[in-house]
Write a structure and sequence with these properties.
The chain has 331 residues and is an alpha/beta fold. The protein has eleven helices and ten strands. Helix 9 runs parallel beside helix 11.
Length: 331
């Protein structure tokens, strides 16, 4: 049994996959397995992955019809055999850190370890976690989750595989699948460890799924909010150590849907963008999500930070202000 299973979903990743895999095979910790799940790529991603697997027996390659990153990650969990699980995206990389991460997990007996990331571009912007290093229980970690000092992405974490053995990603979710997975994983975990060092090397390109317009994003956000509403309708599943995190998740999902209207490729202009934002905010599931977020977030002045990353011109700033006012009315 390897010490670490690294799950790497790949779709149209021919330009970045080799660099990502190289950062994994060159780790000081050799006792690993790298599971590459090709999500129906039509470029040379699959042949490239198979070629690397022929030269390194620690690499395993599976292929599935294109179904999204959530399904690919679940397939990786089905195939994983390591003591610990790490998720890496096909255009990212890891610093030489796995040996240290495993040592911390062994020493602390943690179910989940959090570590920081760095954004790699023309310059490297390090983003260490703003939480003291050390071991935490559920009650001790909760204030940092409430304050959004710990991310809800699956990258930047080490999971004890036995603690997530029954968990899988919600299929068909375009945005928020990793947040929903982390919600379940953190709720079930008892022991945590925080290592602030920025070991995950994250490169987000302009054309990535997070920075381009997607016609289903608003519908997807509505579905995700509805999923969360159903989840918390069960009194047994009321959030304890993740309440503030879930509240901010609701608002982040709405934020992301609004950003979608200003990403490259969006066909809406002017009043079309206003209509899309207004329609999103009037969805019953979204209104219920904002209401629930207000109850979950304990800091009354938090509001909804509608940070539209593409906000550069006067029209966008006006729409941003209107979206903020609309959310304040709902709150």
């Amino acid at each position: 049994m390897p010490q670490v299973s690294i799950i790497l979903p790949a779709f149209q990743a021919e330009n970045t996959l080799e660099r990502t895999v190289r950062s994994l095979t060159s780790q000081s910790l050799a006792d690993i397995e790298i599971i590459i799940i090709d999500d129906g790529s039509t470029d040379s991603t699959l042949p490239l992955a198979q070629q690397m697997a022929e030269t390194d027996k620690r690499i395993r390659v599976t292929r599935q019809p294109n179904g999204g990153v959530a399904g690919a990650r679940s397939s990786g969990l089905d195939a994983a055999t390591g003591t610990y699980v790490v998720f890496v995206d096909a255009d990212d990389a890891l610093d030489d850190c796995l040996a240290e991460l495993v040592l911390r997990m062994d020493q602390s007996r943690a179910d989940i370890l959090f570590f920081g990331d760095a954004v790699v571009g023309k310059r490297v912007r390090k983003q260490p976690l703003r939480v003291p290093e050390g071991a935490y229980n559920s009650a001790e970690i909760a204030p940092f989750l409430d304050a959004s000092r710990l991310p809800w992405t699956v990258w930047g974490k080490v999971f004890r595989r036995e603690s997530i053995a029954s968990l899988r990603f919600v299929p068909g979710i375009l945005s928020g699948d990793d947040a929903l997975f982390c919600l379940h994983a953190i709720s079930a975990a008892q022991r945590f460890y925080v290592l602030p060092a920025p070991y995950y090397l994250h490169q987000r390109s302009v054309g990535s799924v997070f920075r381009r317009y997607h016609p289903r994003r608003i519908a997807n956000i509505t579905e995700t909010c509805a999923y969360l509403n159903r989840y918390f309708a069960d009194p047994v599943k009321q959030p304890t150590n993740v309440g503030g995190m879930v509240g901010r998740l609701y608002l982040a999902l709405i934020d992301e849907a609004c950003q979608n209207e200003f990403y490259p490729g969006c066909p809406h202009k002017g009043s079309g963008r206003r209509w899309a934002v207004r329609a999103l905010l009037s969805e019953p599931a979204v209104q219920a999500g904002i209401w629930r977020a207000k109850r979950l977030i304990q800091h009354p002045g938090i509001g909804c930070r509608m940070r539209l990353f593409a906000a550069r011109n006067k029209l966008v700033r006006i729409l941003l202000a209107r979206a903020r006012r609309a959310v304040r009315r709902l709150l």
